[in-house]
Design a protein that fits this description.
Shape: globular
CATH superfamily: Vaccinia Virus protein VP39
Structural class: alpha/beta
CATH topology: Rossmann fold
Order of helices and strands: HHEHEHEEHEEEHEE
Distance between the termini: 43 Å
Strand content: 25-35%
Strand order of the largest sheet: 3-2-1-4-5-9-8
Largest sheet: 7 strands, mixed
Helix content: 25-40%
Bound molecules: S-adenosylmethionine
Number of helices: 6
């Protein structure tokens, strides 16, 4: 078997599965929406969704009138699908096809959101690289929301290993940020199963 190639894996997922044929699908990203509402951002705040895939979070952001939205994903196909769905509104969003760990932000962000992307980094060097990126990418008082599988959640997603986190582990890992709140979430998949997530919301 060849070496695992993350990009090939995700391009394959988004080329073969429909939007509601993946476990992370949600018609309304309620938890993410609740955190961005809590943040109380200006409409021109710089927002980035890491591993946004073709999630409906961007639709919400556009609908609410945010004007500085960036979606980053390793999969070109995921971005293509999200753009297609948004139609003309896609031009209001900046799209970046990149591995988050090769991402060198050109400016700073006020809101960094990651639902179910960070937990795929199972190598400690990659985890540290991510930490460094988010620490450097945030404006002062910037908001950072991260959601991962919790200790009672799945061990794999889309067939590949993830790292489960407890709330305490996430808080310790991102100790340079100030924790504001956390939430345990039971995500109902399209297959009528549940997945336990933990979300942490920090401010820089
Ligand atoms: C489980 S899906 C979650 C998608 C979306 N955040 C949501 O909540 O619906 C994980 C997403 O992260 C992307 N991804 C995985 N590893 C990545 C990496 N290292 N850098 C950037 N994106 C990545 C995948 O292509 C996929 O879209």
């Amino acid at each position: 078997m060849g070496k695992f190639n993350r990009k090939v894996h995700w391009e394959n997922i988004y080329s073969t599965k429909k939007i509601n044929e993946v476990s992370w699908y949600q018609i309304e990203p309620k938890t993410s929406i609740s955190f961005i509402n809590l943040a109380g951002l200006e409409k021109d705040a710089a927002i980035i969704d890491i591993g946004g895939g073709d999630s409906f979070f961007v639709d919400y952001l556009v609908k609410e009138g945010y004007t500085n939205i960036t979606i980053l994903d390793i999969s070109e196909m995921a971005i293509k699908r999200a753009k297609l769905r948004l139609g003309d509104s896609a031009s209001k969003v900046s799209w970046i096809v990149s591995d988050v760990n090769n991402f060198s932000p050109k400016h700073k962000y006020d809101f960094w959101h990651d639902r179910a992307t960070f937990h795929f980094l199972t190598d400690s060097l990659e985890v540290n690289q991510y930490k460094e990126t988010v620490e450097n990418a945030m404006n002062k008082n910037g908001h950072f929301v991260i959601g991962t599988f919790s200790k009672t959640g799945p061990l794999k997603c889309s067939g590949i290993d993830i790292t489960q986190y407890s709330k305490q582990e996430i808080i310790e890992l991102f100790h340079t940020f100030k924790i504001i709140s956390d939430l345990n979430v039971k995500h109902l998949t399209p297959f009528e199963t549940t997945q336990d997530f933990v979300f942490c919301y920090f401010v820089k």
